[in-house]
Amino acid sequence: MKRLSWFNVTSLTLGFAFLYIPMIILIVYSFNAGKLVTVWSGFSTKWYGTLFQNEAFMNAAWVTIKVAVISSTFATILGTMAAYVLVRGGRFMGRTLFSGMIYAPLVMPEVITGLSLLLLFIGLGLDRGVITIVLAHTTFSMCYVSVVVSSRLVSFDRSLEEAALDLGSSPWEAFRLVTLPIIAPAVISGWLLAFTLSLDDLVIASFTSGPSATTLPIKIFSAVRLGVSPEINALSTIMIAIVTVGVISASLVSKRNSLRAQKDAQAAERTAE
Amino acid sequence: MHNVSQTVFAPWDDPDKEPLIQFQNVTKKFGEFVAIDDLTLDIYAQEFFALLGPSGCGKTTMMRMLAGFENPTSGTMKLAGQDIADVPPNKRAVNMMFQSYALFPHLSIWENIAFGLKRDKQSKDQIAARVDEMLKLTRLEKFAQRKPHQISGGQRQRVALARSLAKAPKLLLLDEPLGALDKKLRQDTQFELMDIQETTGTTFVIVTHDQEEAMTVASRVAVMDEGRIIQVSTPAAIYEYPNSVYVADFIGEVNIIDATAKPAGKDEYHLDWAAGEAPILAASERPFSEGQKAHLAIRPEKITITTDKPKDASNAMQGKVLDIAYLGNLSTYHVQLPGGQIIKAQTANTRRIARRDITWEDPVWISWSATAGVLLDQ
Amino acid sequence: MRRFTLIAVPYAWLLVLFLVPFLIVFKISLSDAAVAIPPYTPNLKDGLGALLAELDFENFAFIASDDLYWKAYLSSLRIALISTFCTLLVGYPIAYGMAKAPEEWRPTLMMLVILPFWTSFLIRVYAWMGILSTEGLLNQLLIGMGVISEPLKILNTNTAVYIGIVYTYLPFMILPIYAALERLDESLNEAAEDLGCSRTQAFWLVTIPLSKNGIIAGCFLVFIPALGEFVIPSLLGGSGTLMIGKVLWEEFFNNRDWPVASAVAVILLLILIIPIVLFQRNQQKQAEAEQ
């Protein structure tokens, strides 16, 4: 293996510094004793204490998690169905419109999605609250889920399903016993993506939420608009920590799986007669 | 024609025998493309039937229609006398061994084999007994608890076979079953397949593009091209009595000599094949009229090559050796005739130290009898 | 039957919650503002005939005549273009370095690029507020080093918006370029050098053209969302930062003028269709080339 040239080393170092230094600063100042986020005045964890006592934040966090769990679950079911239709559905009336509606929300500015959903909910006379946010989040996350799942389905060996049918399964059994277990990793990452998108969303939630339900991003946004505050730093640190643990453990699991697959392949070669 | 000591297995010659599978004027179109063109064919119980042809000839489509994954555009398909057009694949007493094997990667070998049995709602003991029987038949007992990616390619092939045989189907379809194996393993497995077919008494239909494989395993071979069956016969008949230049050329090596026929006695013809050359004498049961175009198909091993002019050969001509292909067991000589035509002649290398009396540029004689070749009209 | 359900459920969902809302936006963009609930006329209550008769392009005419909107669209385009270009300048060397890194590092580097993508967008934008403000860490650092004597005003300017966009959308630029560069056969560059190119020439004549598709994909992935961006201009930008997403938001929440907000949305969408179609075509071409 050739060594990296100084140019590459520099660009990687500067690039990752640019990506990570702001977050590191954010984390460091969450432990600042002073009120000012920009002046270091000693180590303290008091902002975490005040954060947990801040009922408005805690309520918003609870609403956000509830919305994220429900909407990502619905989005996963609908998105998997949509992916199946896209990849395996064959021809049907309005297929082009269908695939257009799957891909359009991915590039649609959030302000437009939010605005249009709000106008729909008002037209239908729905009270804005948890339900409307769930509906909105399900709609745009299902499109992301279906993109993730359909990319897995495209590479799925169709003869596996045919073999299940050939051996006497009904189409539903073939899906449940063969297709679903094999595409499960894609479905799970679709769910995680939908969950993160929902947790993260400010704009669409702002349009579709009512006074009865405020999500964490809305809360953070209105607090941040007034300026930086160490409480927000503490909250951010917690969120970054959760995501980091999640992503690192996911990549460790996938690394272990690929190592095991390698070992299996070697073992298979050895046992070959 | 068949010199087998036991009773000859030839249900296709018995007009009273009911075929297991009947294709009657079956046509399959994909849009404008005609994959199967008005095809009629009978396959009998306990046959090992091979569909042979180049890729795109429609053999896979035929198999997928039998399995139920495609429906004929027109015509009827019967299994044991019953029309199966509307029977979905999961309700057919037909199982298939897929080209990719299609082993379920998330299930163990044992669970793979049990998969079809579980769908039949058999009791646990029944399933276990049957799976064990299948594992034993395919010598996979040691690997029952492994996952498909933990065994070798040859073992995977046997799992696929065991899984499709487990439900004791009336008909087993094999889609290029040995395509993924290397040559040595493929030859061993061919005999294993034949043994298993004989022990279980199942009717096998195999799709292959490998003519050697079809000849080795099959009781009958159907040679296909562009959605049509060109010839259906036993391997020996296909080789020795091809009905067309296409079949003769597809199976094994052959010399084709284009000529004009001229009757010369009962079932014998003189063939004018090149200006200024003596006509070739060929026997043929297929009648030809005076001046009709004919193609003489003659296998290289039926042609004798000698340094001296042979005595009393029906056909003999002189040429010079252009190329020699030494294959170990055989040598093929490419002999160029004065008119420029190249004829291939083959000899078996029965002695270890070959008599190297024929070499490049040598003038040689090639000769064959009147019955050595087949005279074809198309 | 089962197939019908499978198609019908997601289809109906998207029709009701994606297509219909959009048609409503379109309809309202043709209505007039009113002091009522909902604050526009005509309504479906007035009957379909009256409804169709009263729809007009007044809002669009209004948007066309008021140069606030023109300026907002143009300035959104400018900001999106400039920041896409900056993201490319920052992202390409990183992607290049990743593709040249030893194979066993690459999954880790990939993870490091993707990790920020999973963390909250809002938090990542927020992180820059503390750095860029007048008393912020950047100014402290620069004054401490003696580069400047007076603190720079960066927060609440367009510069801060550029930094914010580059920072938050950088993974979208890096990943497609990295994917293109990783597939690049090293021997192509060696062949170019063997045929007399210098290193730099080989880079411009071989590497850049062969990573073209990745560059195009990355640019669109940054440009399209940046154009309708709302969070970054409202947190990092100043009162002078005009971006159409922000205008739409203010029109809707502050002025409560729904018809104009809808008309702004319709025009934004029309502007977006061009890059989206171009992007689609690029993706398709790439997919075909791979087959």
Describe what you observe in this structure.
The complex is a heterotrimer of chains A (273), B (378) and C (291). Chain A is an all-alpha fold and 273 residues long. Chain A contains eleven helices and no strands. Chain A has a domain at 57-216: MetI-like fold, CATH 1.10.3720.10. In chain A, helix 4 crosses helix 6 (130-154). The longest helix of chain A has 42 residues, at 230-271. Chain B has helices spanning 59-67, 109-119, 124-137, 153-165, 183-200, 211-217, 235-240, 245-250, and strands spanning 21-30, 33-43, 48-52, 74-79, 82-83, 94-97, 171-175, 203-208, 220-225, 228-233, 255-263, 268-272, 280-283, 293-298, 304-306, 315-326, 330-336, 342-348, 363-368, 374-376. Chain B is α+β, with helices and mostly antiparallel strands and 378 residues long. Chain B is built from eight helices and 20 strands. In chain B, strand 12 (268-272) and strand 13 form a beta hairpin. In chain C, 76% of the residues lie in helices and 1% in strands. Chain C contains 14 helices and two strands. In chain C, helix 4 runs antiparallel to helix 11 and helix 13 runs antiparallel to helix 14 (258-290). The radius of gyration of chain C is 24 Å and the shape is globular. The model of chain C has no long low-confidence stretch (mean pLDDT 86). The chains are: A mainly alpha (273), B alpha+beta (378), C mainly alpha (291).
Q: What is the C-alpha radius of gyration of chain B, as a whole number of Å?
A: 25 Å
Q: Mean pLDDT of chain B, nearest integer?
A: 89
Q: What CATH first level of the largest domain in chain C would be assigned?
A: Mainly Alpha
Report the helical percentage of chain C: over 70%
Number of contiguous helices of chain B = 8
The amount of beta strand of chain C, in percent, is under 5%
Task: Trace the largest sheet of chain B across and list its strands.
Answer: 6-7-8-3-9-10
SSE pattern of chain C, N- to C-terminal: HEEHHHHHHHHHHHHH
Rg value of chain C: 24 Å
Shape of chain C: globular
How many extended strands of chain B? Answer: 20
CATH architectural grouping of the largest domain in chain C: Orthogonal Bundle
Overall CATH architecture of the largest domain in chain B: 3-Layer(aba) Sandwich
CATH topology (level 3) name of the largest domain in chain C = MetI-like fold
What's the level 1 CATH class of the largest domain in chain B? Alpha Beta
User: How many beta-strand elements of chain C?
Assistant: 2
Q: Looking at the structure, what is the overall shape of chain B?
A: globular
Count of structural domains of chain B: 2
Assembly state of the chains shown: heterotrimer
